[in-house]
Amino acid sequence: MESNATIIKVLGVLFLVLAIACKKEVEPPKTHEWKTLKVTATAYNSLESQTNSNPHITAFGDSIKPGLKYIAVSRDLLKKGIKHNTPVMIEGFDDLFLVKDKMHTRWTNRIDIYMGVDVDSARNWGRKKVKIKYQVEIDQDSIPSELQIK
Q1: If you count Cβ atoms within 10 Å of the first and of the last residue's Cβ in the chain, which end, N or C, has fewer?
Q2: Closest alpha carbon to 104 in 124, 138, 75, 69
Q3: Terminus-to-terminus CA distance in the chain, angstroms?
Q4: Is the Cα torsion angle 32, 139, 35, 39 positive or negative in sign?
Q5: CB under 8 Å to 106, separation ≥6 — which residues?
Q6: What letter does residue 141 receive in the DSSP assignment?
């Protein structure tokens, strides 16, 4: 009698484990994706000689200060979805950068990494070809209507 009760308990626990394991959760649809691009990367400082008479205000109107992980982007990259406040990962860095500034129209396919007032670091960086990954919103029209967030 006791062994039958034990078997029933074991089968009950097994059934419960299987029921939990088989429970399929639906993940919400992605709203963003990461794109990769190869660009030329330079560095800049918040100095009048490199920017304008107000070097701590960006072309987007943001205030910047040394130590923050910001970049400027060439205006052609804005058309590719790298816009104000876009998160960007840069090859060679562990940190995530935010787009807070835009560059002069003469530059194309280029980012400028903000290095505060550390001119030596900016000069040591120089100019490099790097891969970047940037986050863009997924076009909601490309997501089946039953998966769209309403």
Answers
A1: C
A2: 75
A3: 56
A4: negative
A5: none
A6: G
Among residues 97, 65, 102, the alpha carbon closest in space to that of 83 is found at 102
The secondary structure element, H or E, covering residue 5 is helix 2-22
pTM of the full structure: 0.71
Q: Three-class SS of residue 41?
A: strand
Q: What are phi and psi of 43, to 5 degrees?
A: -130, 150
The angle subtended at Cα 75 by Cα 85 and Cα 97, nearest 5°, is 30
Cβ distance 133 to 92 under 8 Å? no
For residues 7 and 113, the answer to whether their CB atoms sit within 8 Å is no
Average pLDDT, the chain: 84
Residue 109: left if φ>0, alpha if ψ -120 to 50, beta else—which one?
left
* Collapsed DSSP state (helix, strand, coil) of residue 4: helix
Pairing of strands 70-73, 96-102: parallel
